[in-house]
Amino acid sequence: MVEDELTSGTERDPTGAHHSVSRITLHQVLSAGLEGALHHGKEFERYARAADGTVTLHFVDGTTATADVLVAADGANSRVCRQYLPDATRVDTGIRAIAGKYPLTEETKRRLPTRLQDGPHSVLPPSGCGMFIAPHELGANYAPTERGIGGNDETAARDAVLFDNTGSYVMWAYTASSAKYPHGDAELSDMGGERLRDMVGTLIADWHPSLRRLVAESPAQSVSLLPIRTSVAVRQWETSNITLLGDAIHSMTPFRGIGANTALRDAQLLARSLIAASRGEVDLLDGIHDYETRMIDYGFAAVRRSLRTAEQTISTNRVGRSMFKAALRVFSVIPPLKRKVFSDLSSK
Ligand SMILES: Cc1cc2nc3c(=O)[nH]c(=O)nc-3n(C[C@H](O)[C@H](O)[C@H](O)COP(=O)(O)OP(=O)(O)OC[C@H]3O[C@@H](n4cnc5c(N)ncnc54)[C@H](O)[C@@H]3O)c2cc1C
């Protein structure tokens, strides 16, 4: 593979450009101002409804909390969802990604083409696998506190390694169907970062040297296996004072990069409904019902599109794959078209 085969973004308009957001920083910023309201270390186990309609949450440490409304935002393995909507399921797509991070320092930057540092790229060889590459570089105005960018340091203090957002890096994720890997699933999930990284190195042995360096020089502890799952669309249920948002209801493959964006959209929409209800402007259950109707529609549309992109990434159909590559190239050089596609997506 030659460097020209890396698709490239050439946008100059900052509103159409790629902006990487550290999920750690986002977490800290979203937690800011919630000191005292946010309780760490509480593992939700189950809920029970009382006769007066309130919901009591039971935590693993034996404590409880009672609420008028329960909003499940507990991610793809949501226990609330399992109890509330037992028919909602997630399925294995059979796709496995192996992801790692190449740290960007003054020295390592010189060892990698600037092209791999200036925006996201999709590498699509003729058949059966792909690699997504995205830089995350701290801005010139970055002013770290002792633990990171700040926001809510209580959150950062929970796990100094997990919540370290003080470094720049290029993230890569190699993707293929499980059958394409030289090891079975059981062995893959037992493999540590070093073996996973070496195996990807072997699988891309005939790729461009810069891509091989990106993988080979990523620290083993940054490399991990991601089995790719997706949720199955659910029919709308009877609204109550328990509702769900984000991955808890519509988890999707990461191939469109819209899971967190969709979760934020849910949060904004639901917050508006709850605020309106608290002001007496709408009935509480009507507000939640309106949110759920819209969320189910655009949320599962995002799930379907994310699955389709995942399937195109690992497809062995050369014609369909060439069309997919051509579409990615066109999107990256025609920003208004890209924006149109993504705005169509978010309005569905
Ligand atoms: C490799 C990868 C790359 C991605 N890239 C992008 C991207 O570029 N753009 C994008 O928009 N999305 C991306 N996503 C998707 C995004 O990460 C998710 O959609 C998003 O994090 C969902 O947010 P959430 O708040 O619903 O769930 P989560 O972020 O999973 O948060 C759930 C929270 O609930 C907590 N929790 C879980 N169970 C319990 C329990 N029993 N008790 C108490 N707490 C609990 C968890 O600890 C966690 O803090 C990516 C995902 C992956 C895997």
Describe this entry's structure for a reader.
There is one protein chain. The protein has 348 residues and is of the alpha+beta class. It has three domains: 158 residues, FAD/NAD(P)-binding domain (3-Layer(bba) Sandwich); 27 residues, no CATH class; 137 residues, FAD/NAD(P)-binding domain (3-Layer(bba) Sandwich), CATH 3.50.50. It is built from twelve helices and ten strands. Strands 6-7-8-5-9 form a five-stranded antiparallel β-sheet, sandwiched between helices. The longest helix has 31 residues.
- In CATH, the topology of the largest domain is named FAD/NAD(P)-binding domain
Strand content: 15-25%
What summary fits the major beta sheet?
5 strands, antiparallel
Helix content: 25-40%
Structural class: alpha+beta
- Provide the residue-averaged pLDDT: 85
For the secondary structure, the number of strands is 10
Strand order of the largest sheet: 6-7-8-5-9
Question: What's the SSE pattern?
Answer: HEEEEHEHEEHEHHHEEHHHHH
Low-confidence parts lasting 5 or more residues at pLDDT below 50?
A: 1-11, 146-150, 339-348
CATH H-level name of the largest domain... which superfamily?
FAD/NAD(P)-binding domain
What's the short version?
By secondary structure, this protein is of the alpha+beta class.
Topology:
Elements: H1 23-31, E1 44-49, E2 55-59, E3 64-67, E4 70-72, H2 79-84, E5 90-104, H3 106-110, E6 121-123, E7 129-136, H4 153-158, E8 168-177, H5 185-190, H6 193-203, H7 209-216, E9 224-231, E10 242-244, H8 247-250, H9 259-278, H10 284-314, H11 318-333, H12 335-347
Parallel strand pairs: 4-10
Antiparallel strand pairs: 1-2, 2-3, 5-8, 5-9, 6-7, 7-8
Helix pairs in contact: 9-10, 11-12
The protein binds flavin-adenine dinucleotide (FAD).
